[in-house]
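dumping this here so i dont lose it again. seq + smiles for magnesium ion
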Amino acid sequence: MKVKKADPLQSKWYKTKLLLQSGFIKRYIPDTRRFSRSNLEQMIYSYGMIYVKPERGTYGNGVIRAERGERGGFTYQYEETVRQFDTFEAFHKSLAKKAGRRRYLIQKGIHLLKHNSRRFDIRVMVQVSPKGAWEATGIIGRLGHPRKIVTNYHSGGKPMAIEALLQSHLSPHRLARLTEELNTLGVRMAAHMQKTYPKIHQIGVDVGLDRSLIPWIIEVNMMPDPYIFNQLKDKSMYKKVMRYRRVQLKKKQ
Ligand SMILES: Nc1ncnc2c1ncn2[C@@H]1O[C@H](COP(=O)(O)OP(=O)(O)O)[C@@H](O)[C@H]1O
Ligand SMILES: [Mg+2]
């Protein structure tokens, strides 16, 4: 019988370790560790806010945001449920129970920028061009549902032009520079990953901007949804993403 091996590129832990091998990319990766009692304790006390998420999750499923309470104590939220705990013991026990047998990661929480009191992050699409070079082909913001802690489209997030989300946070000149930085980062990530995985032809990078507008890599997706770009009024990015995709799909045949 043939046993199908689990794809390492589905593991956020494996992908994080791969990206950490590059000094250029490493600076953009928030502290990420495997879920354990001691990592939870160290990280919640050092950072005050953390994200706890399944090692092999998608669509924002199972993602938890945990914080230290103002008067001691701890809280965490998943979907639209908030839970409070007086002691670290109770907090850890509840999270461990929630994770169950699934592997979870803990990541330093990024205080994402907001637009109309809703958090947003950025998706950068990177594809191999018809000429065979890595190129950033699309960039889009994802505005989270007001009551949720994730920005994913499948969890009620709204895809929006980055200009609309960022115009109150930075000047057009600084936005152009930031876009350039994210495009370069995306291309460097794809090229780095391709050294180990020669067959990849696309990645989608989730980038969080903190309150100082510093970009952080939240995760990298190997099968990014091209259709979110169709949500924009301006169809130029969508058309390019789909054109590059068609060329790659044809080559695979
Ligand atoms: N460290 C973090 N800081 C802030 N927000 C985060 C963090 N990790 C995840 N999120 C939020 O949760 C969403 C889903 O997390 P992600 O790691 O991308 O998992 P998934 O594979 O389910 O998309 C992100 O798009 C972001 O909105
Ligand atoms: Mg994601």
